[in-house]
């Protein structure tokens, strides 16, 4: 998905919920002992850092329109 498209999805409530649901599922998977024992490939770490940088830059790029 193009970064511009990801930003548009983030601006909707449904997009935010979808992202959060994916994050929770990933965290639940990562907390399993058999998963935690395995090393993480360098390319996955690079992709993770890129994704985190993208979401961080989005959060600081304007006022949130989501209700909290």
Question: Would you mind describing this structure in some detail?
Answer:
The chain has 68 residues and is an all-alpha fold. The protein is 71% helix and 0% strand. This is Transcriptional regulator. It comes from Bradyrhizobium agreste.
Provide the descriptors you would attach to this structure in a database record.
Transcriptional regulator; mainly alpha; single chain
Please compute the radius of gyration using only Cα atoms. 14 Å
Alpha carbon gap, first and last residue: 27 Å
Q: Which range does the strand content fall in?
A: under 5%
Secondary structure tally, helices: 4
Largest sheet: none
Low-confidence stretches: none
User: What structural class results from the helix and strand content?
Assistant: mainly alpha
Order of helices and strands: HHHH
Mean pLDDT: 78
Q: Note the overall shape.
A: flat
Helix content: over 70%
């Amino acid at each position: 998905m193009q970064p511009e498209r990801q930003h548009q999805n983030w601006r909707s409530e449904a997009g935010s919920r979808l992202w959060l649901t994916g994050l929770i599922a990933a965290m639940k998977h990562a907390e399993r002992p058999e998963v935690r024992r395995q090393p993480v490939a360098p390319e996955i770490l690079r992709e993770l850092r890129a994704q985190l940088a993208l979401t961080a830059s989005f959060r600081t790029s304007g006022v949130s329109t989501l209700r909290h």
